[in-house]
Structures are given as C-alpha cells and as structure tokens.
Specification:
The complex is a heterodimer of chains A (about 260) and B (about 325). Chain A has 12 helices and no strands. Chain A is mainly alpha-helical. Chain A has one domain (about 5-255). In chain A, helix 2 runs parallel beside helix 6 (about 110-130), helix 6 packs antiparallel against helix 8 and helix 8 (about 145-170) runs parallel beside helix 12. Chain A is globular and about 75 Å long. The two termini of chain A are about 30 Å apart. By secondary structure, chain B is α/β, with parallel strands linked by helices. Chain B folds into 2 domains: about 1-220, Rossmann fold (3-Layer(aba) Sandwich); about 225-290, Alpha-Beta Plaits (2-Layer Sandwich). In chain B, the strands form 3 sheets. Chain B has a 6-stranded mixed sheet with strand order 6-7-8-3-9-10, with helices on both faces. Chain B has a 4-stranded antiparallel sheet with strand order 2-1-4-5. Chain B has a 4-stranded antiparallel sheet with strand order 12-13-11-14. Chain B starts with a strand and ends in a 21-residue tail after the last helix. Classes of the chains: A mainly alpha (about 260), B alpha/beta (about 325). Chains A and B meet through helix 1 and helix 5 of A and helix 2 and helix 3 of B. The structure holds adenosine-5'-triphosphate (ATP) and magnesium ion.
Chain lengths: ~260, ~325
C-alpha cells in the first residue's frame, strides 16, 4: 500500500467508527428526503388544482417544481453539514499528537492532504449517491428531463467538494474541532456573500469579479442544466487553491 | 550516526536551544538528562525532522535533517513525549497502519507486528481498542510503534514514563538489547535509568549542554576533593580539629551522628592509610572508613543548579557559569 492508500483507509475506518458520520449522514438524508417529499406533494397539489380549473391534465414541469428547489435547498444544507464532516481531519491529529507521528514518517504533506481530502470526498459522494433514489423512484411515476438532474448532481458534487476543501483548510489551522467547524462555515458563508455583494454592484468590473469568485452563479448555471467548462474550472481551481493553502498551513506549523 | 552541530532553536524570542553540539556513534545509547523545559524534546523534534532548527546542522544516518528529511525519517523510529495513538483503533490495526506508513512490505509487516507485540509485552491486549487501554499499555503501544520497522536509529522521549517497576526493567532490558545494532537516544529524568542503560549521558540545562560523559566518569569528574566518611567508637571533644591538622586534609565536617565525620582530602592523595593510623594511634577506635562518591543525582543537581562552588574549568566545554544567561 502506498502512504496515500494507507492514510485514506485509516481515515475511512475512523469515520465509520465515529458517530459524526452517522449523525451527519442521517441528517443529510432525512432532510433531502423530506424536501423531496414536500416538493413532490406540492407538485401533486398543483396538478390537482390544474385539473379542477382547466379540466385537463397539465404537463407539469417536475424539473422545475421538484428538482431545482431540491438542489437549491441541499446546497444550503451542505453549508451547515459539511464543516462538521471535515472538522476533525487535522484538528484531531493535533489534539492527539498523532501529527508528530505522521510528520516524522516518510510521508509527504501532499499525500497527507490529498488522502484526507479524498476520504471526506468519498464519504460525501457516497451520501450524495444515496439521494439519487429520489429521481429514480419519481421516474417510475412521472416523466422529466434527466439532463438537468445530472448536471444538478455535478453541481452538488463540485459544490460539496469546494466546501470540503474549505473545511480541510479550516481544520488545518487549529487543534479545536469546534473552532474548525465554525471557521469553515464562516469561510463558506463569506464566499457565498461575495456573490450577493457582486450582484449588488451589478455590471461593474468589481461586481463581475466578485460574482465570479462566489459559487452562486456557477452553481446556478449547472443546476439550470448548463454544463460549461468555465464553471468546472472555477470549482477545480477553488479546490486546488484551498488545498494548497492547507499545505502551506500544515508546513508552516512546524516552523513556529 | 547522529551529529548535532551548533544547533540553536528559538520559539519567538524564547531560546529553547543554544549552540548544542554532540555526536552519537553507531550502536551507542545516549541519555539526555535535564530538568523540565531544558530542551530535550525540542532537540528530539529537530532530529526527527518534526521541526527545523533555527541555526546549526543536524544529521542522522548521514542525511541532513533539513535537506533530506524523507531519508532521515526512513531511518528513524520515534517515540514522542505523548504517544501518538488513535484511540478508536485496536492495537493490531494501529501497528499495521504505522507499519504501512513506514513502508513495510505486507509479509514483513505481519512478522514485525507480532514480533514487536511480543517485545513490548502487548500479547494479551493486541486485539483491544487503544482508547480502552491503561496508560502504561498505551506507552507500550507507543514504543511498539517506534520499533515496528526496525529502524537503525531510535529516538525515545521518556520511554519508561508511566510504566510499572517490573515493566520498566523489562523495557530497559529491551532497550539495552537493541544497542549495538541500533543507535539510541533517550531522554529521561530518572538518573538510575541513565546509569543503568546508557553508554553516555548528556546533561542539558536551559538549552545548553552542561556536561557530557560516561555516567560513572561524570561523578568523578565533578569532584574537586576526595571525600571520606569516618566513623569511630570513642570520639574525643577535639578530634575533628586534630584530624584537620593532618597533611593533605582540607576540611573536616561533622556528620549526622557525633562519632562520624566527613573528611575532605586533596585530590589524588589516598589518605586512607594515614587516617586509619592516626585514628588508631589516638585510640578513637576505628569503626569505618570509606570514600564517598557523588551520586549521579548530586552531579545532576550540582550542574543544573549552577551552585557557585561549581567553578569554571571543570568541563572541557560548554561551561555555563561563566556566561550570563541569555
Ligand atoms: N511549541 C512551542 N512554542 C513555544 N515554546 C516552546 C514550544 N515547545 C517548547 N517550548 C519551550 O522550549 C523549552 C524547551 O522545551 P522542551 O519541551 O524541549 O523541554 P523538555 O526538556 O522536553 O522538558 P520536559 O522534561 O518537561 O519534557 C521550554 O522552555 C518550553 O517552554
Ligand atoms: Mg520533554
């Protein structure tokens, strides 16, 4: 086994024996199920209303009524939940003094960070794939377009990936897990608010730059079914940047 | 095997290590002695590439700690001050994890794991979760972790802390048995431990090396006079004064009981014969006459408390009493 695989396996093992994963997983799946349920019921009520008023079966747009709102709500849920998943990554190693073991083993900081990031990413994507039950079950009873749903999942995957990278960075800066969680939540919130500020400033240069820096417009396009390279580039560079800063942080702690 | 040259380390404005130089030969066991905050852990962290030094150079197994950290780390087993354990893993899982981190092949990993479990006496707890083990057993797991890849250099920060007396003896035996094929640095506060297992002792105080020698030679080096304890049967009121007039006797001090005294003699003159003749001829009744040597504890206290009578010129190098503290 390479050090990357070794650390990845250990991280996954620690996740599966800790309650955090189960709590985060249960809350995430429960909320996503609940939202999907509410949206579907809501769509059904609209269909009934159509029937009463117009006496015809209207072609309801499930993509818009169910999935788009589902994707927007999940985005919000991730903002709160993912920092809890990432908070222990480095903070715990510091607290347990196992950092000393890792950094005095023939393992590069690159491998350490990538393995840790991969472990939370795997867990998050696993949870996300469980939510695909919603479109699969709905597709048995109704028809809708698959394309925006697939890009919506791409959006969720990248969005979560970015949040996880923020969380990893936050965790690398402290040995207190609670501080790490709040810090990553704050970072995500800040990036989000940049978008708000950007749209407030409108079409000015600063406004455009700020909107680009925030994930809102990129997420938006993907959820609406537009799969464009620039949005993927945005997410990938954001993730790489966060992991790079985390690398510097881990390295610099040795110098203090 | 290990060379530390003029190494200093600053934490902000705090100087934790100041121009530390020492060498460890292959197969040697070196003990690092010093009071709390002396800089033992800091030195070890520099040697293990956990943190870089501010000045100077350190090499382990021929590799520089700053320039070739990966090579250094491959040759090292390190037991930090606080054993680096994951409480949610079992002992087996943990040792497997560390072995893989140290790049052991799967076959070797299996044999090494069972070997070190035997070595440090973890036989009946190897399947238990580390978080449920007692402190002494955790310390042993920490030690097993340092040994798992059979590294040529071992750096052990207070390896016997928290162990029971029987286990302390076993672990000391283990460390002793590793000498020769392994080069070992260990830190300790326990002086008999250093005496018992080490070839050489480095005493460090406030970031400076204040003495470095074999344990038994340290105490003799520190003496500026030979001390004798003399016990007689019938002391006379002026016997101490009379003893003091003997040639070669520097000082006579009364000891705990009225018929015992401590005689300070000039260094290098064995006055035992003259003293006994004198005592017998005066009819004091000689009961006991024995030379006193400083215990390592006394040496240690004397060195680290920088008593004014520990004058300069005692040591070949690093005499701290001449320089004002940094
Ligand atoms: N991370 C740090 N930041 C600032 N100062 C530190 C740090 N680590 C150690 N020090 C300081 O450096 C000095 C040496 O500490 P070190 O841990 O090396 O002592 P030690 O000899 O191992 O002591 P002990 O016997 O208590 O383990 C101490 O004064 C300590 O306060
Ligand atoms: Mg220490």
């Amino acid at each position: 086994m390479t050090p990357f695989q070794t650390i990845l396996a250990k991280e996954l093992r620690c996740f599966f024996v800790s309650p955090i994963l189960y709590v985060v997983g249960a809350v995430f799946l429960f909320i996503s199920g609940l939202i999907a349920h509410l949206m579907t019921v809501n769509a059904g009520q609209q269909a009934v209303r159509f029937l009463q008023v117009q006496n015809t079966y209207a072609q309801l747009n499930l993509n818009e009524l169910v999935f788009r709102s589902l994707f927007y709500s999940l985005d919000f849920v991730l903002m709160f939940l993912l920092p809890i998943l990432t908070m222990r990554l480095f903070a715990e190693e510091r607290k347990l003094h196992t950092f000393e073991l890792l950094l005095t083993s023939p393992v590069g900081i690159n491998e350490l960070i990538s393995a840790k990031y991969m472990s939370v990413l795997v867990i998050y994507l696993g949870l996300l794939s469980l939510t695909s039950l919603t479109p699969i079950i709905l597709s048995l009873y109704a028809s809708f377009h698959w394309h925006p749903i697939l890009t919506g999942y791409v959006a969720l995957a990248f969005q979560g990936g970015l949040f996880l990278a923020c969380g990893l960075l936050a965790s690398a800066t402290t040995e207190n897990q609670v501080v790490a969680a709040f810090l990553s939540f704050g970072m995500i919130l800040l990036i989000w608010l940049l978008g708000g500020l950007g749209s407030l400033l409108g079409d000015t240069t600063i406004g455009t730059v700020l909107s680009y820096l925030s994930f809102t417009e990129h997420y938006d396009r993907l959820v609406r079914g537009l799969l464009e390279a620039k949005d993927i580039v945005y997410y990938l560079s954001g993730i790489v940047l966060m992991l790079f800063i985390a690398h510097r942080v881990v390295d610099s702690h040795r110098w203090s | 095997m290990i060379a530390v040259q003029h190494v200093s380390k600053h934490y902000g404005h705090h100087r934790a290590l100041d121009d530390v130089t020492f060498h460890v030969k292959k197969g040697e066991i070196l003990a690092f002695l010093g009071p709390n905050g002396a800089g033992k852990t800091t030195t070890m962290r520099i040697l293990t590439c956990f943190m870089p030094q501010s000045e100077g150079s350190a090499t382990v197994a021929g590799f520089d700690c700053l320039d070739q950290p990966t090579d250094v780390k491959r040759h090292l087993g390190y037991l930090p001050e606080i054993p680096p354990l994951y409480p949610e893993l079992t002992v087996d899982e943990y040792l497997t994890f560390v072995g893989r981190l140290k790049r052991l092949t799967p076959q070797r990993l299996a044999s090494r794991t069972s070997h070190v479990i035997d070595q440090v006496g973890l036989g009946h707890v190897h399947h238990r979760v580390i978080g449920h083990l007692s402190k002494g057993f955790r310390q042993r797991v920490g030690l097993a972790q340092a040994l798992i890849h059979d590294p040529p250099v071992l750096i052990l920060d207070e390896p016997t802390v928290g162990l029971d007396p029987k286990q302390i003896i076993e672990i000391r035996e283990l460390i002793k048995s590793l000498a020769g094929s392994h080069t070992i640095i260990l830190s300790t506060h326990i002086l008999p431990e250093a005496m018992a297992i080490c070839d050489r002792v480095v005493i460090i105080h406030e970031g400076r090396i204040v003495a470095e020698d074999a344990p038994d030679r340290l105490s003799s080096r520190l003496r500026r006079s030979e001390k004798m304890s003399l016990t007689v049967k019938q002391p006379q009121p002026d016997w101490l004064e009379r003893l003091g007039t003997l040639p070669g006797v520097l000082n006579v001090l009364p000891a705990a009981t009225p018929n015992t005294c401590t005689v300070d003699c000039e260094l290098g003159k064995d006055l035992r014969e003259k003293l006994s003749q004198f005592v017998v001829s005066r009819g004091y009744g000689l009961l006991e006459l024995k030379p006193l040597s400083l215990s390592l504890e006394e040496v240690f206290l004397q060195l680290t408390h920088q008593e004014e009578d520990a004058g300069p010129g005692e040591f070949d190098h690093h005499d701290s009493s001449e320089q004002p503290p940094a």
